[in-house]
């Protein structure tokens, strides 16, 4: 019964924009998206070129510092990141307290939040030196934390990082290796995971990035802000979608693989039934990342000799949806999450680790956006307004008279 139009008129110059569909909260020079044309660029470089010619650490440097590094700059950066991969032994013990079946996302965000207790100098986010060292620590330690979260969930011993390996290789080693057995990381897996991290590295003001900026706008430090971003990413409408896609595909497979029946349930808007991995707030065209991921899924599954019936179901679903009026009219296309889960699964990751992998990829973007926010000359604490729709003034009623 609330007349929102009247409320807006009464409140004066306040806009009501649920979901911030048309409201920019900042200006940014990091990532450009043209959702109608399906274009994504980091610092002006197209995602296609970066996917083909760059790598995750170089892209991290580009996002955070604004330019592609020279060879010396990249070597120095790589060396610094590789030197900080160890976790404090006390932080390592932190993992023992979680239940064995804990979802690794809250474990990840808790451990990142706990970094503030080990590096208390980081509590002053206005000190550029602290911001710099926190940046390096996060990039170096998040893969170690993620691998420990995995090891905890399968009851295996933690493996210390071995800094003779690159970041992604080290992560795979710590995740799938065992102390008693030599573990040779397949270079094809390293390359594929590195590429997926590049594709996830930034996506301008999405839900988790906006969270990182908003928390940081109160001058909370980088660790606290990134921890909040990880929690925002956890939801199935955002980063949790990669897990939800695989669960959807498994459900369809279990029911006999009938894509038509499932699509009809989506179109009938059955409660809780969505075509997960489809649709995007900004892309009203094919998500350029999804196009690259689709090719990679084919390649990786082929190389690993994996013949996953779920890939077939995914391709049929896509074909079916893209030729259906419901999806065409609403401009719903596959997003980055539609095919990533199939690759992660083929690599051996359990479904619950998928969103953790998204977080590892998105980290440099969160850091770059936080740093841009803290250095913004027109920085202000984020504090949205509201349209109040509750009671006007009421007289208090004593408890025995209610
Ligand atoms: N399946 C079925 N219908 C959909 C889907 C979908 N995946 N996505 C949107 N729609 C429909 C909506 O029901 C709505 O229809 P209506 O006009 O008849 O009411 C219309 O398309 C517009 O959708 P909105 O929900 O208004 O779009 P919004 O921009 O708010 O949401 C979102 C975008 C959250 C991504 C949505 O498309 C969705 O829930 N997708 C599935 C989850 C997903 O894949 N998330 C990952 C996003 S990408 C990322 O974070 C990496």
UniProtKB/TrEMBL annotation:
InterPro entries: Citrate_synth-like_lrg_a-sub, Citrate_synth-like_sm_a-sub, Citrate_synthase, Citrate_synthase_AS, Citrate_synthase_bac-typ, Citrate_synthase_sf, Citrate_synthase_typ-I. It catalyses: oxaloacetate + acetyl-CoA + H2O = citrate + CoA + H(+). Keywords: Transferase, Tricarboxylic acid cycle. Pathway: Carbohydrate metabolism; tricarboxylic acid cycle; isocitrate from oxaloacetate: step 1/2. Coiled coil: none annotated. The keyword Cytoplasm does not apply. SUPFAM superfamilies: Citrate synthase. PROSITE patterns: CITRATE_SYNTHASE. PANTHER family: CITRATE SYNTHASE. Belongs to the citrate synthase family. This is Citrate synthase. It comes from Actinoalloteichus caeruleus DSM 43889. The lineage of its organism: Bacteria, Bacillati, Actinomycetota, Actinomycetes, Pseudonocardiales.
């Amino acid at each position: 019964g609330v007349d929102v139009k009247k409320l807006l008129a009464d409140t004066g110059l306040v806009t009501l924009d649920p979901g911030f569909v048309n409201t920019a909260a900042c200006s940014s020079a990091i990532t450009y998206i043209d959702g109608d044309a399906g274009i994504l660029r980091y610092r002006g470089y197209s995602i296609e070129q970066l996917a083909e010619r760059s790598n995750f650490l170089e892209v991290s440097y580009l996002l955070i510092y604004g330019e592609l590094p020279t060879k010396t700059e990249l070597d120095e950066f790589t060396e610094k990141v590789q030197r900080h991969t160890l976790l404090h032994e006390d932080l390592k013990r932190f993992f023992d307290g979680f239940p064995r079946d804990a979802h690794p996302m809250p474990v990840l965000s808790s451990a990142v939040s706990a970094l503030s207790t080990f590096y208390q100098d980081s509590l002053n986010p206005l000190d550029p030196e602290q911001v710099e060292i926190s940046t390096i620590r996060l990039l170096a330690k998040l893969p170690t934390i993620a691998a420990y979260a995995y090891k905890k969930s399968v009851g295996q011993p933690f493996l210390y990082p071995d800094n003779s390996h690159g970041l992604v290789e080290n992560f795979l080693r710590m995740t799938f290796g065992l102390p008693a057995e030599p573990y040779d990381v397949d270079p094809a897996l390293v390359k594929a995971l590195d590429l997926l991290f590049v594709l996830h590295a930034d996506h301008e003001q999405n839900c988790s990035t906006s969270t990182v900026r908003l928390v940081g706008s109160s001058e909370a430090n980088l660790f606290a802000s990134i921890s909040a971003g990880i929690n925002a990413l956890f939801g199935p409408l955002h980063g949790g979608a990669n897990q939800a896609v695989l669960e959807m595909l498994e459900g369809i497979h279990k029911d006999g693989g009938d894509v038509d029946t499932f699509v009809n349930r989506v179109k009938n808007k059955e409660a809780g039934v969505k075509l997960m991995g489809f649709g995007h707030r900004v892309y009203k065209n094919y998500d350029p990342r999804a196009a690259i991921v689709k090719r990679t899924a084919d390649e990786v599954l082929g190389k690993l000799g994996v013949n996953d019936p779920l890939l077939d179901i995914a391709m049929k679903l896509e074909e079916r949806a893209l030729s259906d009026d419901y999806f065409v009219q609403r401009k719903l296309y596959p997003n980055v999450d539609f095919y990533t889960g199939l690759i992660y699964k083929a690599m051996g990751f359990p479904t619950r680790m998928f969103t953790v992998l998204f977080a590892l990829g998105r980290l440099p973007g969160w850091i770059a956006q936080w740093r841009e926010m803290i250095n913004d000359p027109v920085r202000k604490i984020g504090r949205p307004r509201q349209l109040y729709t509750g009671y006007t003034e009421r007289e208090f009623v004593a408890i025995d008279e209610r």
